[in-house]
Amino acid sequence: MINKIKVDIFGIWDEVLKNNKKDCGGCSSSNRSGGCGCSKRNSGIAIKGASQEASGGCSGCGSKKSDPKSVGQQFNELKNFIDSSAVRDFAELNFYDLTKINVLDYDDIRILTEMDYEAPFVIIDGIVRYYGGISIDLIYNDVKELVEDIIA
């Protein structure tokens, strides 16, 4: 039996993530000083694991300007990318619509919403990794790294 890396994304399916002039590649939360940040509103705090360096919630900064996409569209693009990648047999992607679930049933999500972080939230193998956008590159690289650890 293959251990699967679980990727859970919590967001609002129809919410459109707008790209602004500084363009955060689909991230809805550029910081107010005009830069890209995918950070907690007003404060520049980014979620990270204990052994990871702090980074923004999305990787699109500096990317080409694109049309705004809904969270659902971004999730489907991620799913299609993962399904056609080398890690397809090792990854399980799930989407939870925040308008259809009870946030109180998910402690990490409840805490993030109470602390005013912006959805969507990306949880990989039970660890909150990103928020404010869905980055195919970051999520794929995390899953790939975890798969290499399983195989090794």
What is the alpha-carbon Rg in Å? 15 Å
**How would you sum up the global shape?**
globular
User: What summary fits the major beta sheet?
Assistant: 4 strands, mixed
- Could you say which structural class the secondary elements and strand pairing correspond to? alpha+beta
Helix content: 10-25%
What is the tally of beta strands? 6
Mean pLDDT: 79
Q: H/E element string? A: EEEHEHEEH
Strand order of the largest sheet: 4-1-5-6
Spans of 5+ residues with little confidence (pLDDT < 50)? 20-63
Through-space gap between termini: 16 Å
Give the amount of beta strand, in percent. Answer: 15-25%
Helical region count? 3
Task: Give a written overview of the molecule.
With 152 residues, this protein is an alpha+beta fold. The protein has helices at 71-83, 107-114, 136-151; strands at 5-11, 16-17, 69-70, 91-97, 121-124, 127-131. The chain is globular, with a radius of gyration of 15 Å. The model is unreliable at 20-63 (pLDDT under 50).
Task: Give a short synopsis of this structure.
By secondary structure, the chain is α+β, with helices and mostly antiparallel strands. It has helices at residues 71-83, 107-114, 136-151, and strands at residues 5-11, 16-17, 69-70, 91-97, 121-124, 127-131. The chain contains 3 helices and 6 strands; from the N terminus they run βββαβαββα.
Summarize the helices and strands and which ones pair or pack.
Layout: E1 5-11, E2 16-17, E3 69-70, H1 71-83, E4 91-97, H2 107-114, E5 121-124, E6 127-131, H3 136-151
Parallel strand pairs: 1-4
Antiparallel strand pairs: 1-5, 2-3, 5-6
